[in-house]
């Protein structure tokens, strides 16, 4: 039995009535082997199996063999085909693709800022060229809350109409600047054409398949806990974050693809704010026995805590989207999955 079965059924329940338009259709997916991509493929496969959609996906991957070794139950499916290539210059697969999900990018720290920026922009341009050539009707671009730049201290949750931006002269802004430029490319492609370009500005998430050895704080905390602790907070623990569970994330992304307005971005994430130290504490308490927490630094006197929190009222109001799985449950499900599958 697939250890994600209950979560995948949660996705189907949250997207009931949306899948019929995908019946017998093809979808092209970039980034299909990463954290988001694995969940997209798992949920699409579940929809095919449960609803008899007869849909198929072509998944772009630089190393499909490596993915097949880690995820053989997906790699061996006849409804999932893997197409080798780099998102910046891949050859176009044959046939029409009425639907496209562009989730392929990199936000990893080892990538140089110039390469990160070029990958995001050139990759989006190439995907839009495929969409134009293969008759795409609906395209979902997986963007980021990084497009807003630093969140003002007086703004508890950042809305889609906030006009701020990353500092263009800061190399650390390459990811956010790249996503901004890519959104612009999508907007231009969606003007005066039949293409509906949907934009999901994603914030922070937790769930199975989230890397535990990357730059995701909650993933690092879960890794520390699985190893027996202590859970290590590298900074002072004061920044505010919120985390949406991966199964809820899939409900949001599929809903935005099928029903979101074109060139009308939606924030994707949870509004439930916690400091990083509180997140570490929540992870620590999810283990038995509870793990100790070590915080490296003390807060600077008078410093204002950084915030990275979405205002999701647009998605709630227009698409009926909600956070269904609370953070405590999300952490416990993630830990349980790692313990069952022994993926660390």
Describe this structure in words.
With 344 residues, this protein is of the alpha/beta class. It has a domain at 208-243 and 271-344: UDP-galactose 4-epimerase, domain 1 (Alpha-Beta Complex), CATH 3.90.25. The chain is 38% helix and 15% strand. The protein has eleven helices and 13 strands. The chain has helices spanning 5-14, 35-51, 64-70, 72-75, 113-133, 174-189, 217-226, 246-259, 276-285, 313-319, 327-341, and strands at 26-30, 56-61, 80-84, 99-102, 138-144, 196-202, 205-206, 231-233, 240-241, 244-245, 266-268, 274-275, 293-295. The strands form four sheets. The protein has a seven-stranded parallel beta sheet with strand order 3-2-1-4-5-6-11, with helices on both faces. A two-stranded parallel ribbon has the order 7-10. A two-stranded parallel ribbon has the order 8-13. Helix 1 packs parallel to helix 8 (246-259), helix 5 (113-133) runs parallel beside helix 6 (174-189) and helix 7 (217-226) runs parallel beside helix 9 (276-285). The chain is globular, with a radius of gyration of 20 Å. The model has no long low-confidence stretch (mean pLDDT 95).
And the CATH topology of the domain at 208-243 and 271-344?
UDP-galactose 4-epimerase, domain 1
Strand order of the largest sheet: 3-2-1-4-5-6-11
Order of helices and strands: HEHEHHEEHEHEEHEEEHEEHEHH
- Radius of gyration equals 20 Å
Which residue ranges are poorly predicted, with pLDDT under 50 across at least 5 consecutive positions? Answer: none
Percent of sequence in beta strands = 5-15%
CATH superfamily heading of the domain at 208-243 and 271-344: UDP-galactose 4-epimerase, domain 1
3D shape: globular
Helix tally? 11
Characterize the main sheet: 7 strands, parallel
Mean pLDDT value: 95
The helicity comes to 25-40%
Question: How far is it from the N-terminal to the C-terminal residue, by CA?
Answer: 20 Å
- Class based on secondary structure composition and strand pairing: alpha/beta
Question: Can you name the CATH architecture of the domain at 208-243 and 271-344?
Answer: Alpha-Beta Complex
CATH class of the domain at 208-243 and 271-344: Alpha Beta
